[in-house]
Amino acid sequence: MIDRPSPNPLYARRLPDKILVAFNHACDLGDLETARLLLACCETAMRNTPLPLRERRRAAETLCGAYERLWLLRHAHRAVMRAMAEAE
C-alpha cells in the first residue's frame, strides 16, 4: 500500500503549527496584540493535542521561542515609543 498525502493540504499540519504561522505573520505586521492572543490560543491547542514526550518537548521549546519573540518585539516597540516621546 502506498502512503498518500492528505487530499486536503489544509489538514496536513497540526492546529498549533497553523496558529504559530498566524502568530509569526502578526509579529511580522507589528500587530502585537493579535500575536499575543494567537500565542495564548496556540498554547491551549498544544495542551489539548496528545503528543509523545519527545514531540512535547519540541513543542514546548517552539512555544518558548515564540514567547521570546513577542517579548523582544514588545520591548523594542516600547523603546522606540520612548525615544519618540523624548524627541518631541
Explain what you see.
By secondary structure, this protein is mainly alpha-helical. It has one domain (14-87). The protein is 76% helix and 0% strand. Helix 1 (15-29) packs antiparallel against helix 2 and helix 1 (15-29) runs parallel beside helix 3. The longest helix has 35 residues, at 53-87.
What is the gist of this entry?
With 88 residues, this protein is mainly α. It is built from three helices and no strands.
Given as residue ranges, the uncertain stretches (5+ residues, pLDDT < 50) are: none
How many β strands by DSSP? Answer: 0
Residue share in helices?
over 70%
Distance between the termini: 70 Å
Largest sheet: none
Helices and strands: which structural class?
mainly alpha
How many domains comprise the coordinates?
1
Radius of gyration: 17 Å
SSE blueprint:
Layout: H1 15-29, H2 32-48, H3 53-87
Helix pairs in contact: 1-2, 1-3, 2-3
